[in-house]
Design goal:
Layout (H helix, E strand, L loop, with lengths): L1 H18 L5 H15 L2 E6 L5 E7 L7 E5 L9 E6 L8 H4 L2 E3 L4 E4 L7 E8 L6 E7 L1
Antiparallel strand pairs: 1-8, 2-7, 3-6, 3-8, 4-5, 4-7
């Protein structure tokens, strides 16, 4: 009799959890990871210049597995920044075959799968001359 009560209790608990729409653990984990990654973002400002501007040196941590950037949501439409990272302990050139990637107001990845403890600088270049004083966010 005790076994059937325990089994019934387990079934009742499972049904109750399904009924309230509990999200799978993986959904909670990925949302928490994104929140902690972007929650540690740095806010920086780019002032237009003809040459690329460097920010850092920064050190990656377990908070993010990628290096991410986005322009402030108040940035005028059509303004973009080009970005790359330089892993300073290994090279003086940008990642991605020394190429920049263009970024706007949505989070974008500048470098992926970066090991914890990696030292890097962020190199920014204006996409065009409209990008005069642009606030952006860096998460790593």
């Amino acid at each position: 009799m005790t076994r059937s009560r325990a089994f019934a209790s387990v079934l009742f608990t499972a049904a109750a959890l399904l009924g309230v729409g509990v999200a799978p653990a993986s959904a909670h984990t990925s949302a928490a990871a994104a929140t902690s990654c972007y929650g540690g973002e740095k806010t920086l400002t780019y002032h237009y210049q003809t040459a690329a501007k460097e920010y850092g040196t920064y050190t990656t941590s377990s908070r993010c597995s990628d290096i991410n950037i986005r322009l402030d949501s108040g940035t005028p439409e059509g303004w973009y920044l080009d970005a790359c990272v330089v892993f300073v302990d290994h090279t003086t050139k940008c990642n991605n075959d020394d190429a920049y990637t263009t970024h706007g107001t949505e989070w974008g990845t500048v470098a992926t799968d970066v090991k914890d403890g990696t030292h890097f600088i962020l190199r920014i270049h204006a996409y065009d001359q409209d990008a005069r004083d642009v606030t952006f966010h860096l998460a790593y």
